[in-house]
Design brief:
CATH class of the largest domain: Mainly Beta
Strand content: 35-45%
Radius of gyration: 28 Å
CATH architecture of the largest domain: Sandwich
Number of domains: 2
Helix content: 10-25%
Shape: elongated
Strand order of the largest sheet: 4-3-6-1-2-5
Largest sheet: 6 strands, antiparallel
Number of strands: 6
CATH topology of the largest domain: Immunoglobulin-like
Distance between the termini: 81 Å
Order of helices and strands: HEHEEEEE
């Protein structure tokens, strides 16, 4: 009777030892299996970069950020080249814009705009910028590039219908 009790206690002890090993392994496998995909940054090449006036309807009443001085509105356009083979979302566009006197018109920031989604291959894009009205044109657009994510990282508030 005592031997069978000792044998039972030994089996129970082994069970708990195995449980201490198997349970963490099972949790690790479960977390790996159900974890979301990594949202790696993907570089996007920018080509054919240009700008144009927004026009009266978009620039009426526009003011510079930080004060109430008059501002001009411009549309930056170009071609985004996504060579990753997968769609890229929420791509931030970086670059430097110089005025006619070769002064940086946005010295405190290099993020100029955003592209919501960039499909694989070449795709056209455009976004709006505002600059103080006293800056002389023509502008020089330099060092433009973009970086985005392989998956959506922000709620798509711009896709909701507010009508």
């Amino acid at each position: 009777m005592i031997k069978s009790l000792q044998l039972s206690l030994t089996k129970i002890g082994r069970f708990f030892q195995l449980k201490r090993i198997i349970l963490p392994i099972a949790i690790a496998i479960g977390l790996f299996w159900f974890s979301p995909p990594a949202l790696a940054l993907t570089d996007i090449q920018i080509a054919d970069i240009a700008y144009k006036d927004c026009g009266e309807e978009l620039s009426e009443g526009i003011v510079a950020s930080g004060d109430m001085s008059a501002a001009n509105c411009f549309i930056i356009s170009g071609t985004a080249k996504n060579t990753s083979g997968k769609p890229v979302y929420d791509a931030d566009v970086f670059g430097v814009i110089y005025d006619a006197n070769n002064n940086n018109i946005m010295p405190n920031r290099t993020r100029i705009g955003n592209i919501q989604s960039v499909p694989p291959g070449n795709s056209d894009f455009e976004f709006r910028i505002s600059v103080p009205a006293n800056l002389p044109t023509p502008f020089k657009l330099d060092k433009f590039k973009a970086r985005g994510f392989s998956g959506r990282v922000k709620p798509l508030l711009y896709e909701t219908n507010l009508e």
